[in-house]
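DM from R.C. (forwarded with permission)

"hey, sorry to bug you on a friday — could you get me a structure for this? deadline for the figure draft is monday and I only need the backbone to look sensible"
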Amino acid sequence: MTSLEGLRDIIPPDRLFVDPAQLKSFESDGLTAFKATPRAVVLPETSDEVVAVVRWCARERIPFVARGSGTSLSGGSLPVEDGIVIGLNRLNRIIDLDPEERIAVVEPGVINAHVTQAATPHGLHYAPDPSSQIICTIGGNVAFNSGGAHCLKYGMTSNHVLAIKAVLATGEVVTFGSRSRDHLGPDLTGLFCGSEGLFGIALEITLNLLPPAEEFHTVLVGYRSLEAAGEAVSAIIDSGLLPGALEIMDALAIEAAEAAVQCNYPPGAAAVLIVELEGPREKLTVERVQLDELLSATHAFETRVAASAAERLSIWRGRKSAFSAVGRLSPDFIVQDGVVPRSRLGEALRRIQEMSQETGIRVANVFHAGDGNLHPLILYNGHENGALERAEALAARILRMCIEMGGSLTGEHGIGVEKSAYLPDMFDAPTITCFKDVRHAFDPNEISNPGKMFPGPEAPALQHSGAHPLEKAGIISRE
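My reply, with the result:
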């Protein structure tokens, strides 16, 4: 096994962890059912240190995994045994914020919400708003092309990244894109966004900033059935309205949010729909009338309009807390991330309910309804024998349903290790080979975040209370 002496020459002892107790905190990310122990964890404080560590890994053929806040829900920052974790939280500077160009240049460890906090005094904000935005980092957002509640109108992270300076797995430092919003040639910035760390590590990210909307019109709508809420979404989209956000929560998710933050959603609702219009006051004057007419035809039993900024924040507090709040209902849960066509949203929700009833496994539904991005939270107790396997089997059924409907395995959480076994269900062999060829162009030795996205023998040695789908398929072994 390669000695760590070369690494000790780059990173001082107080930022190089090798003790088992120190490594314990890095064994898992947001997908806590899985763990792997890295050989070492390094905490660089400068881009030069990151580059030096990656070049050492390239010389020694040591695999590495970049990690921000560890909020990945697909195991995207799960360590590789005998590999190195490169923690990026200390690279947290906003290098430049230019209000005239409406640009921010940030390091990968900058927290998502901190960008808007820095831009607000200049009358600007950063649009992508994942539910974990108070803790997730921009580097992680880039790796998984994160979205958020307002992605319907504003798009994903890739729509707001103008340039990326990165160190590739070979140790080469490159710059994709520029501060200009116009570019020629292939969109390598867009290619890097969503690459799940398979190419290398972003060192500096140039972000596009936007002025905030002049006015908001936020409506909370209660329905007696989840399918009715899904059909309301289709009606709104079909009308030509483009809300800033369209979000749905079902009764179980509402129960959890009420217990956590007392959001005061309509009692007895099987589902609530959050619709938020935003834009110039004159435009909203027309659109809110159109929205009222649409909602009145959707069999809602209660409709509330936020009359103040405080009421708007209260409505959103329940939605933003949903993932963590479900922990009040179950000791463990799997968060899925499939996508279905909006026209089939109501059908998808009905089928998920049927699957839940068939299996006796509770499912809390929280999702970006506007773009069909489902986030079913599958509840289980990891201390019960076979509970994780049953939850994973239900998750697989939901993902395959999404594919059958013409949707996708993932909307924003990525493939990671969680969904890699299902990649062939969505893509044929030549397409997957093409994906791998692109990866090899940036990382010919497959040392950057190996074992993620693609099913194969390079998968990390995962450890959990039962058999992972990759193990069942004979792809990995826990021996």
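R.C.: lifesaver. The longest helix spans residues 387-404.
me: no worries. The domain at 330-472 is CATH 3.30.70.2740 (Alpha-Beta Plaits).
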